[in-house]
Each structure stands twice: as C-alpha cells, then as structure tokens.
Amino acid sequence: MRGFVTSVVLAVLLTTTGVPARAAAPTWTAVSAADGTCAIRSDGSLWCWGTNHRGTVGDGTTTGRTRPVRVDDSRAWASVSRSWSHTCATRTDGSLWCWGDASAGQLGLGAAAGTQPRPARVGTDTWKSVSVTGERTCAIRTDGSLWCWGGNWMGQLGDGTETERRTPTRIGAATDWTRVAVARMHTCGLRGDGTLWCWGYNVNGVLGDGQPGTGRKTPARIGTAASWTEVSVTEERTCALDRDRALWCWGSNHLGRLGDGTEIDRPAPVRIGAGRSWASVSVGADHICAVTTGADALCWGDNTEGRLGDDTTVHARSPVPASPDLDWRALSAGTAHTCGLTTGGELWCWGDNGGNQFGDGTDISSPMSGTPVRAGTATGWAEVSGGGDHTCARRTDATLWCWGGNRAGQLGDGTTTSRPVPRRVAGTWKTFATDTDTTCGVRDDGTLWCWGALPRKKTVTAPQRVGRLATWTGVTVGESHICARRDDATLWCWGGNHAGQLGNRTTTVPREPVPARREISASWAEVTAGSAHTCGRDTGGRVWCWGDDTSGQRGDARGTSPAQPLVLPPVSSIHARSRDTCALGADRSLWCWGDDGAGQLGGGDPFRQDVPRQLTTDRDWTHLTLGHSFLCGIRAGGSLWCWGANGRAELGDMTREYKTRPVRVGTDTAWLTAGTGRVHTCGIRTDRSLWCWGDNSKGQLGVVLPARRAVPVPTGP
After folding, report:
1. Contact at 8 Å (CB) between 322 and 707?
2. Dihedral of CA 581/530/637/571: which sign?
3. How many C-beta neighbours within 10 Å does residue 658 have?
C-alpha cells in the first residue's frame, strides 16, 4: 500500500499544566506519519526520521534516519504533512515549504523535477494548512481559497481536468475552505458552512455520494448535512466527524477496516462507534485510529505489525482500545504504523518500524524485541524449545510450562486461547519437544504424551497419551510427523509420510507408531525431525537421514536411500528444523546442510547445500538450536551467537538484517542453553533465568511487551 496513505496533520497547542514530570524536557506539538515520521517540537523546530530515499526527511540527504534529525534551523514551524514521496510544512508566518520527490510536480516548484532534499518555499503567498499524498499536494491559503498541484490522472486535483499541475492551481472560486485531506486518487474538503465536498476517483464509494465508480473532476457536495468538522482520507476509505462528535466512515470495508463490524463496502457514510464522543480521526493505509473527547485512543482494521496498539496482531472490525493507560490528544495513522501525542506532549509510536519510523534508533517493530527480555522472574529453568508461535520450557523440578500461540491447543491447557505468560502443563516431565502447532513430552514415568495439532488432522488441547508403553526416553516433533525413542534404543515414528520421513520404507500413513530404519541400526542415541525429513544418530556417533531431500536436507548428495552414514566426523548431537539439518561434532565443530535461502548455512548456494559443510573453523560449539531459516549456538565460553533470517529480530542483535555469519547476542557469557521457534528465540542463563527475543505477536516471549515505544525528544540545538 506504499503511497496510498494520506498524511494527517496533528497540530496541537499544549500548555504546561498537568504535564508529567518526565516531560519537563521539550515536548512535541504535532506529528505526521506515513512510511516515515515528522514532528514539531514545542520550541517550533521540525524533526523527521525514517525512510528517506526520496529526500522526505529534509536534511539534504537521501539517507534513512534511525533517530529524529532536525530539518533546518527554523523555530517557526506550525504544521507538517508527510507522505511516502514528499513532505510539506507551514511556518508561523504563513509560508509554505516542500521537499522530497518532485517527479509529478507535487512540490509546486514548477518545472523542477527529481529530488529536492531540503525545504524549498512554494511561491510567496501565505497558507493556513497543507495536506500531501504520494503524487499530490493541496493547501488552503489564508484567504480561504483552495489550491492543489501534482498528479491528476483521475481528476483528483479538482480543477475539471486530468492535467498534471506543477504549480499551485486554484480549485473553484470558494473562499471559505477550512479543511482539506488528500489521498492517492481522491480529495475531500470542508467549507465554512459545515458542508463536505469530495472529488476524484470513486473506487468502492470512497467519495461517499452513494454512486461508486462515478468519478468527479470538480468538488461535489456530499449529502445535505452542514455539520461536518473534520475529514481524513486514504485511497479506499474516508472518515469524517460532525458537530455532534459522531464519527462516520465510508468506502472499502475489506477485512472490516471501516470499523462498523462488517466487511460490507459502504458507498455512503455509516456511523462508527455509536455512543462515543469523538474528538479526532486519522485514516491510515489499512487501519484507522481516533481519539475520544475523554482522551481515549481507539484503532481498528488491519493489525499487521501491531499497528492498532492493542498488544496483539489480531485484525479488528470495530474500535479496540490502544494504549489505554495514557491520555491522548491526537493520533496519526501511517502506512503501517501509528504515532500519537499525549496530553502531556509525549510522542509514542507503534506498529511497523522496519523503516525506522519510531525514531528510537532501531528498526524493531512492535510487538517484537530485538534484544533479550526476561520472561518473568522465575528461575530454575532447565530446557526451552520454541514451536511456531509458542514456547515451552521445563524447570529443574520437572514441571513443564507453555505460552504463546494456542490455536491448535499446543499449550496443553485445555483451551485454544493464546497466553502471553507461562502456564503449567499437568504432570512432571523428563523431556519434551515442539514444532509449529504441536507439543510432545515424556513424563517421569516413561509414558509419552502429545497435544496440539496431531497426525491425521486431529486437534487435542490437553496432553493425550500415545499408546500404553512406559518405556519412552526421547521425542522429536516435525511439521507433520513425530518420532520417539524407547529405552531399548529403538526408534518409532508416526504421522505424515508422503516423503518417507517415517523411515518404514513406505509412504503410507500408519495408525500407530512404526519402527524406523531398523535395517540400519537397532541402537539409536538421538533422533530429530524436520518438515518432512528425519535424521538419527546412533550410539557410535554416525548420522543417517531419510525422507524429503528437495533442499538437500538429507545431506547425502541427492542419494536415494540412507544406505551409508553421512560423511561426518563423529557426532555428539544432531538437529533438524524445516528443511535444514545441522550436527555438532564430538570435536565441537559445527556442520550443516539443506536449505540456505536466508544464508543460515553460510551464504553458499542460495537454494541447497546437499552435503555436510563445516560452517566455521571454530571448534568450541557446545549447543545448537535451529529455527525456521536461522540458527543459534552457544560457545564454550558461554557466549550466544545467531545467524540467518532476521525479519522479526529473532537474532537478538537489535536489527532486522539477515546475517550469513554468526553475530553475538549481547555481551553476556552466561548462556546455558537455547531454543528457537519459527521467528523467535529463548535462552536460559547459568542462573537458570529465562530470556526471549524476536516476534511476540502471540505472546511467545513470555512477557507482555508494550505495543508502543516512546520517541526520544531531541535535545540538540
């Protein structure tokens, strides 16, 4: 949706009365969010940050900024409006300044094209307000006249043509315009008599005139009401407030983004949140946020990356509270993030931070943690394992605890409710294993139990015993199959078998556990399961793999059967996940093979490494765990290292950049063991405390992270 969101200007007059003590430093008075952010400080200085490839930050460069940078030396900025392509702002003397991309004439500077990375004044007239979108700008002069410029392929400038305008062009003859809001393909404005006018392309009824598909090249009055006070637009939706503080929205309602509890498109205004008294509204690309007269913040629509600010990533068809512990003055909904001003002048942001939209020096979005956070205050943790979006850990007293996503009952608490903090699973346990939506464990009495998404499409929300034997010693869980080892060192598997991953020399699906690779060895020391392959280590330290080999995860150079062990030095442990396999040598060397799509195997063949490859020359690895397209390992000195995919900060290095070589997680040298999920990681330190990082969208880190993050107030000149 890049470029489809209009920037909503939040200019707020603040007093010092009731300002929290920590806000004694300069505070914020206005904010505008798009795919980056700009804000005005209480001293009138303007600061921008985030993506900057078109010069939208205004600091004379096209370098992205992870923290707020000052636009120029003026302390007279009054309002700001930012889009993905350019930014415009007004000063207290009424002058209008724009910068960024000029390719469609959206800066209003005439024939100038290309990029203008510093503020340039637009003419010599004086202006009251400005609103920008990707290719267009509209502004109201101090005499109340409306002017627009930039792209005009759908008549969205409102001058009756489809001609691009590179300088301000007057729209109509009216001189009582009070508000204007621009989106990619339509524009809406308010006049002094309270009437609402819209024009441009009418996709999904976004103009609100009840005639979807019928475009307007000049302003057309919407309805007969004369009580409108505020309007906000994006490409497919429009919202407005009336004098009774009622909120109305219309246009596309895909995924319930209008907030009326349905997914029905609305070509005419429909009331949102009846019974509430609304003070302001901001429409983002795929979500909407509004503030009530009681200073409550509510958001609805798409909640990817947590942009609604409710500590979840669950989409909402009706308003849900956002950060209810603060009093809000105004919100600005951007492309995939939201920023808000509190009544005390603090600025907070939440949602996507991949382009440094938060200005806090990181690119870590919420809900995520790019550095280890402690999962509660408990100690005594002994073992941890991550599934898809859930985590389980065993304590030294043999109790088992699970938390995070629970859509298939994988937490084992008898429900399908996600849990952000650990909950105990009944029984005492010797060992356990997890994968996407499944958990299995061996109890102290040698019985084997599984729950969650079980083979043959069965969902179980509490531990269910597997067979009647009490001789199990270990278990591993793949994406569609399960394997376990008995005390006689035999190996048994069940579940999906389309690639022969069960090791019974067929592709049929058995109803109960079947012996695996009995013809190879009757003395298995360890077994590990990937998506559709299985690997085992015998008591002599030799490794065999069978099942799927589409990414080379069997490690036998495209062989057809595990007739021979893999060419490896004696192995002390074997690990499989997804389409990767790794082994630790008895000499503490590290070997991997399989899919290398994220560089997790050292950045060789981007598709497959079909024979074991030593990843580093170091021979000090003591522990290894595999996530989905990333790895983490502990070295002899207790340091923890991760590499591979990092889209959800699962490597713990405070970035979201993929790494093809191990990067250290902090400076701690007290790591004892670690476990990885699909896109999160947890580790246990020598004091038996538990720490997690990466994605927390289902609470899998075991701690409730605040959805919002404070934007630091710059203290520079």
Report:
1. yes
2. negative
3. 18
The DSSP output letter for 244 is T
**CA-based nearest residue to 181, from 162, 158, 161, 204:** 158
**Res. 655 pLDDT band, cuts 50 70 90:** confident
Q: What share of the chain is helix, strand, coil (3-state, %, to 5)?
A: 0, 45, 55
The domain 1-14+36-183 is classified under which CATH number: 2.130.10.30, 3.30.479.30, 3.30.365.10, 3.40.640.10?
2.130.10.30
The alpha carbon of 495 is separated from its chain's Cα centroid by a whole number of angstroms, namely 33
d(CA 256, CA 520): 56
The Cβ of residue 474 has, within 10 Å, a number of other Cβ atoms equal to 21
pLDDT (tens digit, 9 = 90+) per residue, 76-124?
A: 999 999 999 999 999 999 999 999 999 999 999 998 778 999 999 999 9
- What would the two tokens of residue 710 be? 């404070």
Residue type, 277: S
Element (H, E) at 672: strand 671-676
Peptide bond into 569 cis (omega under 30): no
Contact status, residue 703 vs residue 376, Cβ threshold 8 Å: yes
- Check: CB of residue 14 under 8 Å from CB of residue 346: no
What backbone phi and psi angles, to 5 degrees, belong to 405?
-65, 150
| 372 pLDDT tier (thresholds 50, 70, 90) | confident
- Which structure tokens are listed for 349? 């942001």
Residue 5, SS3?
Answer: strand
> Edge-to-edge strand order for the sheet containing 28-33?
10-11, 28-33, 36-41, 46-50, 65-70
Q: Mean pLDDT check: name the lowest of 470-474, 556-560, 576-580.
A: 556-560
User: Can you give the pTM of this predicted structure?
Assistant: 0.74
Kind and range of the H or E element at 589? none
255 SS3 class: helix
Given a contact cutoff of 8 angstroms between Cβ atoms, the answer to whether 599 and 658 are in contact is yes
Edge-to-edge strand ranges of the sheet holding 278-283? 278-283, 287-292, 297-301, 316-321
Residue 172: exposure state from Cβ atoms within 10 A (0-12, 13-18, ≥19): middle
What distance in Å separates the CA atoms of residue 586 and residue 569, rounded to the nearest whole number? 8
Kindly list the distances between the CA atom of residue 627 and the CA atoms of 48, 270, 631, 674, 694, in Å, as whole numbers in the listed order.
Answer: 36, 46, 6, 11, 11
Q: In what order do the strands lie in the sheet with 247-251?
A: 228-233, 237-242, 247-251, 266-272
- Report pLDDT for 603: 60
Q: Say whether pLDDT at 614 is over 70.
A: yes
- Helix (H), strand (E), coil (C) string for 336-356: CEEEEEECCCCEEEEECCCCC
Neighbouring CB atoms inside 10 A of 533's CB total: 29
Hey, what amino acid is at 687? Answer: D
The CA distance from 614 to 601, in Å, is 9
CA proximity to 51, closest of 471, 451, 358, 432 = 358
- DSSP-derived secondary structure for 537-551: EETTS-EEEEE--TT
Please say if the pLDDT value at position 432 is more than 50. yes
Q: Is the peptide bond preceding residue 367 cis, with omega within 30 degrees of 0?
A: yes
pLDDT digits (tens, 9 = 90+) for 537-565: 999 999 999 999 999 999 987 665 555 78
Q: C-alpha distances in angstroms, 281 versus 89, 246, 272, 333?
A: 20, 11, 11, 9
Q: Is 15 exposed, middle or buried (0-12, 13-18, 19+ CB in 10 A)?
A: exposed
Residue with tokens 């307000």: 129
For residues 678 and 387, the answer to whether their CB atoms sit within 8 Å is yes
What's the CA gap between 645 and 651, in Å, rounded?
8
Phi, psi for 575 (deg, rounded to 5): -140, 130
Rounded to whole angstroms, the Cα distance separating 372 from 358 reads: 20
Q: Name the DSSP class of 205.
A: G
Instruction: Determine the Cα–Cα distance for residues 494 and 472; give it in Å rounded to an integer.
Output: 14
State the amino acid at position 9 in one-letter form.
V
Q: Which residues pair with 124 in a beta bridge?
A: none
